[in-house]
Amino acid sequence: MKESRRARSKVSHPTLEEVKQFCSENHLVMDPEECFDHYQGNGWVQGHRGKPVVDWRSTVRNWARREKKFSGNGSGNGHAPAAQKDEPDFVVFNGGRR
Question: What confidence tens digit (pLDDT) does each residue in 9-55 have?
């Protein structure tokens, strides 16, 4: 059964401080500002279909899990320290010129 517009409009989104506090209380090793900025910038929707975020706490926990999964240590639980990268976060492309 689909949610009514009225029910969806009651979903509240967190502040940055709430996300930081949630991460701290749950020992989530992640960058809460990066997660918050991502969803805030996308209007608190997820996926290519733009599904509204209904449970932001679950979304933050999943972000932490994915961050662990893609950081290279493979623990996938969001509680161990992230692997350190020696590579830069970006690569400069010079358009094929030497």
Answer: 567 899 999 999 999 999 999 999 999 999 999 999 999 999 999 99
For the four alpha carbons of 69, 74, 77 and 83, in that order, the dihedral sign comes to: negative
Number of CB atoms found within 10 A of residue 81's CB: 10
Angle between helices 56-71 and 16-25 (to 10 degrees): 60
Contacts of residue 65, defined as CB under 8 A and 6 or more positions apart, other chains included, come to 76, 77, 78
- Length of the chain measured in residues: 98
How many Cα neighbours within 13 Å face the side chain of 55? 4
Contact yes or no for 39/59 (Cβ under 8 A): yes
